[in-house]
Amino acid sequence: SMQYSVARPIAYRMRGKIWVNNHAHVLKAANGQTSFLFYALEHKDIRPYISSGTRSKLTRSELVRIKVAVPDSRDEQRCIASSIEAVDYFIASLERLITKKQAIKQGMMQELLTGRTRLPGFDGSWSTVELGDLTEIVSGGTPSSSVKAYWDGGIPWATPTDITNESGRYLKRTERTISKGGLEHSAARLLPVGSLLLCTRATVGEVKIAAVPTATNQGFKSLVPNSGVSSTFLYYKVLTLKDMLTSKGSGSTFLEVSKRDVAKLLLEIPNTSEQIAIATALTDADDEIDCLTVRLQKARAIKQGMMQELLTGRTRLPVQEAVS
Question: Is residue 196 classed exposed, middle or buried when 0-12, 13-18 and 19+ CB atoms within 10 A define those classes?
Answer without folding.
Answer: buried
